[in-house]
Every structure is written in C-alpha cells, then in structure tokens.
C-alpha cells in the first residue's frame, strides 16, 4: 500500500510540460486578414470554434473553414497548418517537469490530461519527445469533452483504475480546473514551477525521487 494513499498522478500539458504562446500565430495571421490582433486572438483562440475543435466536434478541415470564415482569411489550409501549430516550445522548466513525471511513473500510475485539438496533439507528438513519461495520454478531442467537465476527470480516474478519486493527485496551471477537480475529491494543486510542485508532492507523502 502506498504510504500517501495516492495511486495515480495526472499532469496537464500546456504551460506545464510544454509552453505555448498563441500570439505567435496571431501575429502571423495578421498578414492574411483585415482583423486586428485582438480580434484574431478572440475569434481564433477564445471562441466556441476552438472549443468545439478541442472536443472533437469538428474535423481539422471544418475547423479551418470556420476560422477562415470568421477572420476572412486569405490563406489556404496547407499554409494555415504551420501557423496554427508552431506556437509551442520547450523551456528548462518544462524539461524539469518531464523528468519529475518520468520519476513518478516508476512508482505511480501516471496520465496526461489535456484540453487539446487533434492538429496540435499530432504536431506535439511528432516534435516533442515528452509523452513517454506517462502510462496514459488522455485528450479532450478523444474523450469528447473538456476540463473542467466532471465527466472528464471521472473518465481519467476510470482509465487509471484507481479505487477512489481521493487517491488521485492532479496538477494544472489553471486554478479553475483544479477547483473543479477538487470538488470531486481529487487532490489538486495549481502548477507554478517544478520546485513548488515537488514541495506539494512531498507534503502529500508522494515519493518523487
């Protein structure tokens, strides 16, 4: 029996294991639309279109068509793809989290749980070798819903095969997602940096060495 009672550990992806900056794409899109950068950001990223794509409700081509229509883009799909995808980068902090996750995988069930669309996920798997730190990779587009939907956390716990939601530890950079998970009994902490995460794990009696 694990001393802490924790059987499984769930990590978020974006701004935890991989960094990203939506403005990289927004600035590039400016060349192909009359919309402002602020308008692009709102329509491109903080919209129902992107939400539907992350939940697997749209094909990549349908997503592109709706974005093109919303932004009046003068661009084709093939030229759009690298603009949409090339917003990610690895930092030294990301690499520290990755190493921590690899260490934890040796002693606990581990999963990556991410609100992500199929294009970004395919790109990340191809470009960034970070996914071997996890027993399970759980994506919103495959699950058909996004955090903080309680069903997503329940599906994650079911996949991990834990005896109770209270035996799950979860870290994410977004506080509102952590709060919803905690309502279900999951032990969640907001990710700030690797050093803080290691302290949070230690406090709960989780062996990360």
Q: Can you describe what's shown?
A:
This protein is α/β, with parallel strands linked by helices and 209 residues long. It is built from eleven helices and seven strands. The chain has a five-stranded parallel beta sheet with strand order 5-4-1-6-7, with helices on both faces. Strand 6, helix 10 and strand 7 form a beta-alpha-beta unit. Helix 1 crosses helix 2. The mean pLDDT is 95.
Count of DSSP helices?
11
Strand % is 5-15%
Order of helices and strands: EEHHHHHEHEHEHHEHEH
Low-confidence stretches: none
Structural class: alpha/beta
Strands, count: 7
Radius of gyration using CA atoms only: 18 Å
* CATH topology tier name of the largest domain: Rossmann fold
| Mean pLDDT over the full residue set | 95
Number of domains: 2
Helical percentage: 40-55%
Distance between the termini: 18 Å
Q: Which second-level CATH architecture of the largest domain applies? A: 3-Layer(aba) Sandwich
What is the top-level CATH class of the largest domain? Answer: Alpha Beta
Shape: elongated
Sheet with most strands: 5 strands, parallel
Instruction: Supply the CATH superfamily name of the largest domain.
Output: HAD superfamily/HAD-like
> What order do the strands of the largest sheet run in, or round the barrel if closed?
5-4-1-6-7
Fold topology:
Elements: E1 8-11, E2 19-20, H1 22-29, H2 37-44, H3 48-54, H4 60-71, H5 77-85, E3 88-89, H6 92-105, E4 109-114, H7 118-127, E5 136-139, H8 140-143, H9 150-160, E6 168-172, H10 175-183, E7 187-190, H11 194-203
Parallel strand pairs: 1-4, 1-6, 4-5, 6-7
Antiparallel strand pairs: 2-3
Helix pairs in contact: 1-2
């Amino acid at each position: 029996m694990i001393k802490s009672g924790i059987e499984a550990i769930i990590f978020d992806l974006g701004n935890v294991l991989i960094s990203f900056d939506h403005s990289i794409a927004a600035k590039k899109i400016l060349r192909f639309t009359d919309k402002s950068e602020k308008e692009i950001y709102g329509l491109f990223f903080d919209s129902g279109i992107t939400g539907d794509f992350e939940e697997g409700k749209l094909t990549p081509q349908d997503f592109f068509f709706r974005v093109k229509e919303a932004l009046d883009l003068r661009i084709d799909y093939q030229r759009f793809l690298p603009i949409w995808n090339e917003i990610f980068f690895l930092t030294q902090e990301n690499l520290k989290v990755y190493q921590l996750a690899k260490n934890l995988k040796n002693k606990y069930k581990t999963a990556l749980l991410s609100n992500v669309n199929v294009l970004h996920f395919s790109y990340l798997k191809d470009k960034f070798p970070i996914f071997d730190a996890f027993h399970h990779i759980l994506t919103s587009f495959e699950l058909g819903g996004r955090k903080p939907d309680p069903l997503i956390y329940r599906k994650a716990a079911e996949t991990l095969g834990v005896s109770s939601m209270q035996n799950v530890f979860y870290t994410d950079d977004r506080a509102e997602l952590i709060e919803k998970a905690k309502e279900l009994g999951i032990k969640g902490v907001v990710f700030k940096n690797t050093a803080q995460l290691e302290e949070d794990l230690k406090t709960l009696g989780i062996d990360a060495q």
